[in-house]
Amino acid sequence: MHAMYRTRLMAVAGLLAAGMMVAGCGRKSNGTPPPSGPPEVGVVTVQPQRVELTTELPGRTSAHLIAEVRPQVGGIVQKRLFTEGSDVKAGQVLYQIDPSTYQAAHASARAALARAEANLIPARLKEERFRDLVKIKAVSQQDYDDASASLKQAEADVASAKAAVDTARINLAYTKVTAPISGRIGRSTVTDGALVTASQAAPLATIQQLSSMYVDVTQSSAELLKLKQNLASGLLKSNGAAQAVVKLVLEDGSAYPLPGTMKFSEVTVDQSTGSITLRAVFPNPKQTLLPGMFVRAIVEEGVSDQAILVPQRGVTRNPKGEATVLVVGAENKVESRTITVARTVGDNWLVSSGLKAGDRVILEGIQKAKPGTTVKAVQFGAKPEAAPAAAPQQPTAATK
């Protein structure tokens, strides 16, 4: 029994010694790491580049041509001769108004013209005879003057009758209501049998030409003045085109495939909004654009040949609200620099002052980069250098 008890004590003591060895090894491996070098930060080197600057403005589409169809004579609509929502051509007959009264008026005017022309013949012959007779004193001068006046009156009656015939013919032609322009016609506001009047307030239908579309956008007068100042100072350069190119983003966020051109801007500022209306024209061959759609127009303002761009993630604001960046300066020391930003270009800030070519702006590791500290600058986005691998811990006999 004593031998067995002694054997058990020796086994327990061995286990305790093995546990202490394992604990000692763990404490040794978790000791203080060797001192490391300066913190590593990701930087981007500022380089001037050519940038086309654009402005995105909200707007609405409108038809290039709009014509409201109204009757120019009154009467009963006999028939509608078009399909609602279809494309019509200029001059196509849309409505037929009862022409009977206008046909009668035209016939009466032609009869009056024939009577006036008949009265003209004897008046002309009498004037010709009296012209010869007054020379030989066969008739008095008064008789000749009366014959001449009668001839002129007969000629005036003929001219008046011709004008009446033309008026009657025009009114008769107006009984066929035609399309003033080519385009897509909407719904009809009248049906067969309806009574219409000349130049009535309510249109019979509306035609809109959709092959080209206007896009009206608004821009603040302050932004327009700023653009002109940038062009004058040389910060921006005009692209040299006679008309600025405009791109379009539709309501669903998709880009319209065809570019448009800027046509004109208003000459006055809207006093209520302080904005100016700009109008662009876009081709619309597939009639993708419809009147009244909300769109966003991207207007090309100009080109900056020496633009300095900084990613937005590297720009912060100080308590004064000024834009600041951290720059790796001489001797790899961090400097805080105040910059002036003009606008955003994609996910970058356009910097107008505070940075120059060759400056290294910190984008990654900003938490470790305090002004005045020394850092190790690596290019942002580059693969980090492989750290020296630590010697793997060999398992001890106790861990096996």
Structural account:
By secondary structure, the chain is α+β, with helices and mostly antiparallel strands. The N terminus and C terminus are likely disordered. Helix content is 27%, strand content 34%. The two termini are 32 Å apart. It contains four helices and 19 strands. It has four domains: 85 residues, conserved putative lor/sdh protein from methanococcus maripaludis s2 fold, CATH 2.40.420.20; 102 residues, Efflux pump adaptor protein, beta barrel domain (Elongation Factor Tu (Ef-tu), domain 3, Beta Barrel), CATH 2.40.30; 53 residues, OB fold (Dihydrolipoamide Acetyltransferase, E2P) (Beta Barrel), CATH 2.40.50.100; 76 residues, Helix Hairpins.
**Helicity, as a percent range:** 25-40%
Shape: elongated
Order of helices and strands: HEEEEEHHEEEEHEEEEEEEEEE
Which strands sit side by side, in order, in the main sheet? 2-9-12-11-10-13
**What is the oligomer described by this structure?**
single chain
CATH class category of the largest domain: Mainly Beta
Radius of gyration: 46 Å
Tally of discrete structural domains: 4
- Mean pLDDT across the residues is 83
